[in-house]
Design goal:
By secondary structure, this protein is an alpha/beta fold. Helix content is 32%, strand content 25%. β4, α2 and β5 form a beta-alpha-beta unit.
Length: 148
Amino acid sequence: MARPSGGFQESVAHETRLRLVASRGAVGTPPVLVLSGEFDLDTVPHIDRFLRRHLGPLYHQDHLVIDLAATTFVDSSFIAFVVRLLTDQRARRKELVLVQPTGQVRRVLALVGLPNVVPVFESVDEAVARLVSGRLPVIPPAFNSARA
C-alpha cells in the first residue's frame, strides 16, 4: 500500500481540511488522518477520495487512525462512512480508531453508540501505540460522552 512521503499530505475544500500525517515510527505504524471543520453529506465524500488519492484504492486494508480534535460538526453521513470503513477493515482484520472527539462530535458519537464499536482514544500516541502493539482486536476503552 502506498504511504505518504515526507511529513504530510493535505487537502482543503468546503471549509474542511484533511491532512494525512506520515508515519514517524517504524514500519507498520498506521497513518493518521487529521480532520478539521464540518463533515456532512457534501464533504464526507472528500474523505474517501483523499484517502484513495494518498494511500491508494485499497486504503481500507490497513489500520487507520482518524484524529477528530479539530472537527466541529458531523452528521449521519459521517457516521455511515465510519461504519462502512470499519466493516471493510474488520473483514480484513484491521482496525479503525478515532481520537479526541470534542463538543458536538463527541455528543453525536455517544448518541449513536459508535464508541461501543469503534475505539475512541484521547491521544494519537495512545491510539498508535495500541495498534502497533499487535493486541487486536482493539477493545474500545471507556468513553465519557461529557468530556471536553
